[in-house]
Protein backbone atom coordinates (compact mmCIF):
# COMPACT_ATOMS: atom_id res chain seq x y z
CA UNK A 1 0.00 0.00 0.00
CA UNK A 2 2.88 2.41 0.67
CA UNK A 3 3.56 2.50 -3.08
CA UNK A 4 0.10 3.90 -3.84
CA UNK A 5 -0.51 5.95 -0.68
CA UNK A 6 1.38 8.71 1.14
CA UNK A 7 0.40 8.96 4.80
CA UNK A 8 2.17 11.43 7.09
CA UNK A 9 1.59 10.04 10.55
CA UNK A 10 -0.43 6.86 10.63
CA UNK A 11 -3.38 6.96 13.01
CA UNK A 12 -4.73 3.44 13.54
CA UNK A 13 -7.22 4.75 16.12
CA UNK A 14 -8.68 7.42 13.82
CA UNK A 15 -12.45 7.17 13.34
CA UNK A 16 -12.37 8.07 9.63
CA UNK A 17 -9.91 7.95 6.75
CA UNK A 18 -9.84 10.79 4.22
CA UNK A 19 -8.68 9.55 0.82
CA UNK A 20 -7.37 12.40 -1.37
CA UNK A 21 -6.79 12.32 -5.14
CA UNK A 22 -4.30 14.64 -6.89
CA UNK A 23 -5.04 17.21 -9.56
CA UNK A 24 -3.68 16.59 -13.07
CA UNK A 25 0.11 16.40 -12.94
CA UNK A 26 0.03 16.44 -9.16
CA UNK A 27 1.82 14.31 -6.61
CA UNK A 28 0.80 13.10 -3.20
CA UNK A 29 2.68 15.48 -0.88
CA UNK A 30 0.24 18.41 -0.90
CA UNK A 31 -2.57 16.33 0.60
CA UNK A 32 -0.34 14.06 2.67
CA UNK A 33 0.67 17.10 4.73
CA UNK A 34 -3.02 17.55 5.59
CA UNK A 35 -2.45 14.63 7.92
CA UNK A 36 -0.51 17.04 10.14
CA UNK A 37 -3.21 19.73 9.93
CA UNK A 38 -6.34 17.79 10.90
CA UNK A 39 -7.15 16.33 14.29
CA UNK A 40 -6.43 12.80 15.45
CA UNK A 41 -9.92 11.56 14.54
CA UNK A 42 -8.95 11.68 10.83
CA UNK A 43 -6.21 9.76 9.04
CA UNK A 44 -5.27 11.21 5.64
CA UNK A 45 -4.39 8.87 2.77
CA UNK A 46 -3.01 10.75 -0.26
CA UNK A 47 -3.03 8.82 -3.54
CA UNK A 48 0.28 8.58 -5.42
CA UNK A 49 -0.34 7.77 -9.08
CA UNK A 50 2.13 5.95 -11.33
CA UNK A 51 4.76 7.91 -13.24
CA UNK A 52 5.64 10.36 -10.45
CA UNK A 53 7.52 10.63 -7.15
CA UNK A 54 8.64 7.18 -5.98
CA UNK A 55 6.79 5.65 -8.94
CA UNK A 56 8.57 7.76 -11.58
CA UNK A 57 9.90 4.73 -13.46
CA UNK A 58 6.42 3.20 -13.86
CA UNK A 59 4.36 3.95 -16.98
CA UNK A 60 1.55 6.48 -16.66
CA UNK A 61 -2.01 5.24 -16.28
CA UNK A 62 -3.79 5.30 -19.62
CA UNK A 63 -7.39 5.21 -18.38
CA UNK A 64 -9.49 6.16 -15.40
CA UNK A 65 -10.50 2.50 -15.07
CA UNK A 66 -6.84 1.58 -14.53
CA UNK A 67 -6.53 4.16 -11.74
CA UNK A 68 -9.77 3.04 -10.10
CA UNK A 69 -8.81 -0.63 -10.18
CA UNK A 70 -5.39 -0.02 -8.63
CA UNK A 71 -6.69 2.25 -5.87
CA UNK A 72 -9.70 0.07 -5.06
CA UNK A 73 -7.78 -3.20 -5.08
CA UNK A 74 -4.97 -1.77 -2.95
CA UNK A 75 -7.19 -0.05 -0.39
CA UNK A 76 -10.17 -2.39 -0.20
CA UNK A 77 -9.20 -3.93 3.19
CA UNK A 78 -8.60 -0.47 4.66
CA UNK A 79 -11.88 0.88 3.28
CA UNK A 80 -13.81 -2.10 4.66
CA UNK A 81 -12.18 -1.65 8.06
CA UNK A 82 -13.63 1.76 9.00
CA UNK A 83 -15.55 4.72 7.57
CA UNK A 84 -13.89 6.76 4.84
CA UNK A 85 -14.41 9.99 2.91
CA UNK A 86 -13.10 11.18 -0.48
CA UNK A 87 -11.57 14.49 -1.57
CA UNK A 88 -10.44 15.50 -5.04
CA UNK A 89 -9.68 18.70 -6.93
CA UNK A 90 -10.12 18.99 -10.73
CA UNK A 91 -8.77 15.69 -12.15
CA UNK A 92 -8.98 14.39 -8.58
CA UNK A 93 -12.72 15.14 -8.43
CA UNK A 94 -13.25 12.92 -11.47
CA UNK A 95 -11.21 10.17 -9.83
CA UNK A 96 -13.35 10.53 -6.68
CA UNK A 97 -16.48 9.97 -8.73
CA UNK A 98 -15.07 6.96 -10.57
CA UNK A 99 -13.79 5.32 -7.37
CA UNK A 100 -17.03 5.99 -5.47
CA UNK A 101 -19.12 4.52 -8.27
CA UNK A 102 -16.90 1.43 -8.51
CA UNK A 103 -16.85 0.81 -4.75
CA UNK A 104 -20.63 1.12 -4.53
CA UNK A 105 -21.45 -1.06 -7.53
CA UNK A 106 -18.80 -3.75 -7.02
CA UNK A 107 -18.33 -3.87 -3.24
CA UNK A 108 -21.44 -2.07 -1.92
CA UNK A 109 -19.15 0.33 -0.06
CA UNK A 110 -20.04 3.99 0.33
CA UNK A 111 -18.07 6.93 1.73
CA UNK A 112 -19.53 8.93 4.61
CA UNK A 113 -18.88 12.14 2.65
CA UNK A 114 -17.49 13.21 -0.73
CA UNK A 115 -15.71 16.57 -1.09
CA UNK A 116 -15.30 17.74 -4.71
CA UNK A 117 -13.40 20.79 -5.94
CA UNK A 118 -12.77 22.72 -9.13
CA UNK A 119 -14.54 20.48 -11.65
CA UNK A 120 -17.80 19.98 -13.49
CA UNK A 121 -19.51 16.62 -13.12
CA UNK A 122 -18.04 14.24 -15.74
CA UNK A 123 -21.38 13.72 -17.50
CA UNK A 124 -22.35 17.42 -17.63
CA UNK A 125 -22.47 19.32 -20.93
CA UNK A 126 -19.96 21.81 -19.55
CA UNK A 127 -17.45 19.00 -19.05
CA UNK A 128 -18.19 17.28 -22.36
CA UNK A 129 -17.66 20.52 -24.28
CA UNK A 130 -14.41 21.43 -22.52
CA UNK A 131 -11.43 21.80 -24.91
CA UNK A 132 -8.81 19.05 -25.04
CA UNK A 133 -5.45 20.25 -23.78
CA UNK A 134 -3.25 17.17 -24.00
CA UNK A 135 -2.54 17.58 -27.74
CA UNK A 136 -1.44 21.22 -27.57
CA UNK A 137 1.97 22.20 -28.87
CA UNK A 138 4.61 22.75 -26.19
CA UNK A 139 4.31 26.53 -26.63
CA UNK A 140 0.51 26.48 -26.30
CA UNK A 141 0.74 24.10 -23.37
CA UNK A 142 3.18 26.32 -21.47
CA UNK A 143 1.00 29.38 -22.10
CA UNK A 144 -2.06 27.52 -20.81
CA UNK A 145 -0.18 26.39 -17.68
CA UNK A 146 0.78 30.00 -16.93
CA UNK A 147 -2.81 31.14 -17.49
CA UNK A 148 -4.30 28.53 -15.17
CA UNK A 149 -1.77 29.26 -12.45
CA UNK A 150 -0.81 26.94 -9.61
CA UNK A 151 2.45 25.72 -11.17
CA UNK A 152 5.45 27.05 -9.21
CA UNK A 153 7.70 29.51 -11.04
CA UNK A 154 10.71 27.26 -10.41
CA UNK A 155 9.06 24.68 -12.67
CA UNK A 156 7.84 27.08 -15.37
CA UNK A 157 11.20 28.87 -15.57
CA UNK A 158 13.37 25.74 -15.64
CA UNK A 159 13.39 23.91 -19.01
CA UNK A 160 14.94 20.77 -17.49
CA UNK A 161 12.31 20.52 -14.77
CA UNK A 162 9.57 21.26 -17.31
CA UNK A 163 10.71 18.26 -19.37
CA UNK A 164 9.93 16.05 -16.38
CA UNK A 165 6.69 17.74 -15.34
CA UNK A 166 4.88 18.30 -18.66
CA UNK A 167 4.64 14.59 -19.65
CA UNK A 168 2.97 13.82 -16.30
CA UNK A 169 0.42 16.59 -16.80
CA UNK A 170 -0.24 15.60 -20.42
CA UNK A 171 -0.77 11.96 -19.41
CA UNK A 172 -3.33 12.89 -16.75
CA UNK A 173 -5.15 15.22 -19.11
CA UNK A 174 -5.34 12.43 -21.69
CA UNK A 175 -6.95 10.15 -19.09
CA UNK A 176 -9.58 12.75 -18.23
CA UNK A 177 -10.28 13.62 -21.86
CA UNK A 178 -11.12 9.98 -22.57
CA UNK A 179 -13.13 9.50 -19.38
CA UNK A 180 -16.79 9.27 -20.31
CA UNK A 181 -19.72 8.18 -18.20
CA UNK A 182 -23.48 8.57 -18.56
CA UNK A 183 -25.52 10.71 -16.23
CA UNK A 184 -26.82 8.45 -13.44
CA UNK A 185 -30.43 7.35 -13.96
CA UNK A 186 -30.84 7.78 -10.22
CA UNK A 187 -28.51 8.69 -7.34
CA UNK A 188 -26.28 5.76 -6.41
CA UNK A 189 -25.08 7.29 -3.13
CA UNK A 190 -26.84 8.49 -0.01
CA UNK A 191 -23.91 10.33 1.62
CA UNK A 192 -23.50 14.13 1.66
CA UNK A 193 -21.64 15.70 -1.28
CA UNK A 194 -19.87 19.05 -0.79
CA UNK A 195 -18.48 21.09 -3.70
CA UNK A 196 -15.90 23.86 -3.57
CA UNK A 197 -14.64 26.15 -6.32
CA UNK A 198 -12.68 29.33 -6.93
CA UNK A 199 -14.80 32.40 -7.70
CA UNK A 200 -12.37 33.52 -10.40
CA UNK A 201 -11.95 30.09 -12.03
CA UNK A 202 -13.70 29.28 -15.31
CA UNK A 203 -17.35 28.34 -14.57
CA UNK A 204 -17.93 24.70 -13.65
CA UNK A 205 -21.24 22.86 -13.56
CA UNK A 206 -21.12 22.07 -9.85
CA UNK A 207 -24.88 21.69 -9.60
CA UNK A 208 -24.72 18.57 -11.80
CA UNK A 209 -22.88 16.71 -9.02
CA UNK A 210 -26.19 16.60 -7.12
CA UNK A 211 -27.27 13.76 -9.43
CA UNK A 212 -24.98 11.26 -7.68
CA UNK A 213 -26.55 11.39 -4.22
CA UNK A 214 -29.80 11.36 -2.29
CA UNK A 215 -27.99 13.01 0.58
CA UNK A 216 -27.27 16.61 1.48
CA UNK A 217 -25.66 18.67 -1.28
CA UNK A 218 -23.81 21.96 -0.79
CA UNK A 219 -21.69 24.36 -2.85
CA UNK A 220 -19.17 26.81 -1.39
CA UNK A 221 -17.32 29.39 -3.50
CA UNK A 222 -13.99 30.75 -2.26
CA UNK A 223 -11.82 33.61 -3.56
CA UNK A 224 -9.24 32.73 -6.20
CA UNK A 225 -8.80 31.00 -9.54
CA UNK A 226 -8.28 27.32 -10.36
CA UNK A 227 -5.76 26.62 -7.62
CA UNK A 228 -7.61 28.67 -5.00
CA UNK A 229 -7.16 25.78 -2.53
CA UNK A 230 -3.40 26.42 -2.35
CA UNK A 231 -4.12 29.72 -0.58
CA UNK A 232 -3.54 29.25 3.15
CA UNK A 233 -6.79 30.94 4.18
CA UNK A 234 -8.84 28.87 1.73
CA UNK A 235 -7.07 25.68 2.77
CA UNK A 236 -7.97 26.37 6.39
CA UNK A 237 -11.63 26.92 5.47
CA UNK A 238 -11.71 23.64 3.55
CA UNK A 239 -9.96 21.64 6.27
CA UNK A 240 -12.16 23.13 9.01
CA UNK A 241 -15.23 22.21 6.95
CA UNK A 242 -13.99 18.67 6.30
CA UNK A 243 -13.08 18.16 9.97
CA UNK A 244 -16.43 19.44 11.21
CA UNK A 245 -18.39 17.16 8.88
CA UNK A 246 -16.28 14.05 9.42
CA UNK A 247 -16.43 14.46 13.20
CA UNK A 248 -20.23 14.20 12.99
CA UNK A 249 -20.45 11.77 10.07
CA UNK A 250 -20.78 8.61 12.14
CA UNK A 251 -23.55 10.20 14.23
CA UNK A 252 -25.46 11.01 11.03
CA UNK A 253 -25.47 7.33 10.13
CA UNK A 254 -26.63 6.01 13.53
TrEMBL record:
One of its GO terms (molecular function) is fatty acyl-[ACP] hydrolase activity. Its EC number is 3.1.2.14. Keywords: Fatty acid biosynthesis, Fatty acid metabolism, Hydrolase, Lipid biosynthesis, Lipid metabolism. GO terms for biological process: medium-chain fatty acid biosynthetic process. InterPro entries: AB_hydrolase_fold, TEII, Thioesterase. Pfam families: Thioesterase. Transmembrane segments: none annotated. It comes from the Eukaryota. Residues 17-241 form the Thioesterase domain. It catalyses: (9Z)-octadecenoyl-[ACP] + H2O = (9Z)-octadecenoate + holo-[ACP] + H(+). Belongs to the thioesterase family. This is S-acyl fatty acid synthase thioesterase, medium chain.
